[in-house]
Amino acid sequence: MARVMAYTSPARGHLYPIVDTLVELRRRGHEVHVRTLASQVGALQGLGLHAEAIAPAIEALPLDDWRWSTPEQALAGGLRTFGERCVHEVPDLQRAIAEVDPDVLLVDVTTVGAAAVAEAGPIPWAQWIPFFQHFALVPNVSPELSLIPFTLAPAGMEVLNGARGQVGLPPLAGPAEAWRAPLYLYYTAEPFEDERLELPPSFRLVGPGLWEPPAQAPDWLADLDEPLVLVTASSEFQRDDALVATALQALGPEDVRVVITTVAHDPGRFPAAANAIVTRWLPHGPLIRRAACVVCHGGMGITQRALAAGVPVCVVPFGRDQTEVAGRVTAAGAGSQVLPDALTPTALRTAIRQAMTMRAGAQRVAAGFSRAGGAAAAAGALESLLASAPEGSQAAVGEIATR
């Protein structure tokens, strides 16, 4: 039995993809510890995991990239937040390691300070990636993979090197050196990920993590006769309230049942519609299994959850990695997209109708996800990493806590 420690950023969209993996590791007899959002500690403890909150100072630094009007400003704002979190991540993970004495570390790819601690120490470590990585396809040349978002701008490299300086690691000379972990658990799979991409040998595509907090399906779901369209906004606040308002107008005249989860927005802000239920949250799993289409902002979590069920998606991307997700949805023939600047009731209605005809593409993606192996493949990869570690690699764990 090994002691596993997972360290996450303060985002449910980064925690939920790995929960199935952590539960599988526990099922295999490992002792699993998690440092994550305070609001999720109870749910994880209920699964038999040893969960505690990350430092409050980290949660006090939420991403505010939605405030900015251009992608460049949003990227700069996001990188600034990641850099500010690093200062607290380093001592936070050091304390956790000193308390738990783990045999293997699993670190969120956006927790740069935690990754620096992991690289500087003797413990076998891996990172997980819950969103697409960017690559450029050049004729007759292998694709070049970029660590998103840190290698997109010089400020990102400064964040990486700032964290490394906190723990005594030398600076990286350039983006090509950014991939440092021995193992990357990449929570997606072909054909949703581009099949032309030649990933580094440290990558393991395992398909999406599909865990969500357990909840009972609403009683009325079993009695629905009309096609169901699920519309959902992001769990992280951004300017996607326009999607909710436009969907109510677009689908009001349609012979469908509309269920809208506003999540980060007050549902009382939106007008009532005869064929719509608007609420802050409902369990997505049972709704998706019944849905004819899922309309969303293009977050990897909800998009891959729908596609894993063979349900087509209509994406309206508002920022971050969502434009990339929308492009992958359409490239896979698994749905449609509407850009925010073109978002009108007519355009959205047309795109939803188109997506509802694309179930075959969504089912191809679902089959690819299933082949990737999911939680069992991810847990197996971590076990292989630990088995291949040098003898006695845990002997100097205490060194990290005293740096």
Q: Can you characterise this structure?
A:
This protein has 2 domains: 3-207 and 373-401, Glycogen Phosphorylase B (Rossmann fold); 219-367, 3-Layer(aba) Sandwich (Rossmann fold), CATH 3.40.50. It is 39% helix and 17% strand. It contains 14 helices and 15 strands. The protein has helices at 12-27, 41-46, 56-59, 71-100, 112-120, 154-166, 241-251, 284-290, 300-308, 322-331, 345-355, 359-372, 374-387, 397-401; strands at residues 3-7, 31-36, 50-53, 104-108, 125-129, 134-138, 141-146, 184-186, 203-205, 228-232, 257-261, 276-279, 291-296, 313-315, 335-337. Mean pLDDT is 89; it is low at 137-142 and 394-403.
SSE inventory with pairings:
Blueprint: E1 3-7, H1 12-27, E2 31-36, H2 41-46, E3 50-53, H3 56-59, H4 71-100, E4 104-108, H5 112-120, E5 125-129, E6 134-138, E7 141-146, H6 154-166, E8 184-186, E9 203-205, E10 228-232, H7 241-251, E11 257-261, E12 276-279, H8 284-290, E13 291-296, H9 300-308, E14 313-315, H10 322-331, E15 335-337, H11 345-355, H12 359-372, H13 374-387, H14 397-401
Helix pairs in contact: 1-13, 4-5, 4-6, 5-6, 7-11
